[in-house]
Design goal:
Strand content of chain A: under 5%
Oligomer: homodimer
Number of helices of chain A: 14
Distance between the termini of chain A: 36 Å
Largest interface: A-B, 50 and 50 residues
Helix content of chain A: 55-70%
Radius of gyration of chain A: 18 Å
CATH topology of chain A: Farnesyl Diphosphate Synthase
Structural class of chain A: mainly alpha
Order of helices and strands of chain A: HHHHHHHHHHHHHH
Amino acid sequence: MAALLPISINPNPLAKKMSRSNPSRPSRTTVAIMSQDHPYWASVHAEIEVHLKQHILVRPPLSVSEPMHHFVFSAPPSPGPALCVAACELVGGHRDQAIAAAAALHLMHAAAVTHEQLLSTDGPKTKPKPRPMVHSPGIELLTGDGIFAFGYELLAKSMDPAQNNSDRILRVIIEMTRAMGSQGMVDGQYHEILTLCKQSRYYKYVCEKKEGGFHACGTILGGAGEEEIERLRRYGLCVGVTRAFSNRVEEGNEMETMEVVKELRSLALKELEFFHEGKAEAISSFLHLSSL
Amino acid sequence: MAALLPISINPNPLAKKMSRSNPSRPSRTTVAIMSQDHPYWASVHAEIEVHLKQHILVRPPLSVSEPMHHFVFSAPPSPGPALCVAACELVGGHRDQAIAAAAALHLMHAAAVTHEQLLSTDGPKTKPKPRPMVHSPGIELLTGDGIFAFGYELLAKSMDPAQNNSDRILRVIIEMTRAMGSQGMVDGQYHEILTLCKQSRYYKYVCEKKEGGFHACGTILGGAGEEEIERLRRYGLCVGVTRAFSNRVEEGNEMETMEVVKELRSLALKELEFFHEGKAEAISSFLHLSSL
């Protein structure tokens, strides 16, 4: 059976490097670093993890659920899930309203990563060191499909007549499908396999498509108005792309990359100015973290 | 650009053979045969096709949308979409209430078929003659992912405040994700690549997982009660498996296969006895067709 790993949504680059270099090792250290330095993000992370563990069970047929469990809990971090919760709270929603969507965002990300491993054998290499393949290509393909489906199921199941939240959940499903579909993730991945993404403008395009479409979910679930939704959507887009560019520093293009990061950070902070002073403190700390 | 093909949901085995043997040829003949002999199914088919054509557009980025268009409109037939509409009408719903779900069911099927082509190169061959691969494996993988996402989007977008149908749509999304996920389609496909499915009991298991989970959608959208939903779910399961077994006759195991088909037909008709005489005539004619 695959090792049962905690997810790692912490954007700490050291932790990320660790989890990438050996995806089959537990990343508890990540959580520990977060807990000390950033209790807010640690608590968000912990609640998403609990939700995922409650729902991603190893049950018959084991041949299908074990690889699914493995890929979900060994996926590298992405900013979407934690930002989803923080955005919901920023607009006055309760954390519970966003946890299922945050977990679904992690599942979408994990499924995309699982399928990307298959892409790395098709066309020019886009990642310098793809992770070693644990399962056969067929299992990776089917497991990714199963995780996608379960992500939408988890989200749809969070409907609650007492909260009268069906319309919001359907709107979030539409957001998520667009982010994952041919105008979003799929487009980004396609362009990633076509190019080596050495040029910043191509790299930015790929990152925007892959990272940028997921950031309205928490705001919608928290009951925000359209202006707040758009502000936090753009904030999330900037954070996601900043994050991807920050990781790129390791791969060269330092000067150009740092300039893009600086510009994106500035744009991101500008979006938060819309909110009352002090209210956006928690969510803005993520940006600070992600460009460490 | 990929040829723009009409979908073929007609279960006529001759038409199916044609569309399989040359998936890049238009299958208009299929529709013509249906129109003459079965105006009800022809009209259902035509409305689903119109809905798909309105929503599956070739638009930028063409590199992503063209293969998507191709795979959606060249997928071989499956009984799910037409039965979805018929079940909705049987329980007193209007056809419009089920068309988006029927189109989404076709998209799920088309995406699964697209990914299955990739599986046929992994492990023992499960189909005697896999279709020739038009696109690279990377494109097939990403296109399938994009089609899955769009299927859920199409369904979620069919929410209509005037109809107050959000709860029903969310329930249908849950049904569809389960049918596609690790307990449904993925499990069936996994077992299909593991075995050559020569033994009827394995083949039946695979068919039940792959074909059987999609048949409550139209009934839910038509506003049926739980008993009606369960009856038509089981009817759809029997029809789907009957259909798969009927096609298997060509591949040997004739006697055993015919026995299974006979038993399934009998079970399917039993489910329809629950409905007032005459009301289930349209939907029962599909069973008759599918075992031709």
